[in-house]
Amino acid sequence: MTADAGESAERWWPRTGTSDPDLSAFHAAGGKLIPRQGDADRLIPTGGTVGCRRRVAALIGGARKVDDLAALTARVGNRRAPAVPTAANGQTAARDVCRHSMISRCVGRGDPPAASGFGCVPAGPSRPGRT
Predict the structure, then answer these.
(1) Rounded-to-integer distance, Cα 84 and Cα 66, Å
(2) Dihedral angle over CA of 63, 67, 72, 78, nearest 10
(3) Looking at the record, which segments are called Disordered (predicted)?
């Protein structure tokens, strides 16, 4: 790991990372989670997502048998999901979660920390001076 990567991990881990598999409150409230994992995301390796799922299942006494396809169909096929879900860090910023091949980019309107100031645009080479 380079010095820059180590410094970045130190800075962002408290905000974005966790190694605590205790989702018992979420589970007790009837929460259901369908994780999305892209293989192109180098910050969240696929093996980490699989390992996290196993640790959570072990902590809550095993995974319940679930028809994953039915859960996904209920969310997407029956149109219960927003076209562009919004992710928020709970404190200062929100961004649209763009579909594959699109990225969230500042469109120059609205409150900068708000999702309304951003839009989903085709991914392409970044340009200097653009966010």
Answers:
(1) 26
(2) -140
(3) 1-20, 110-131
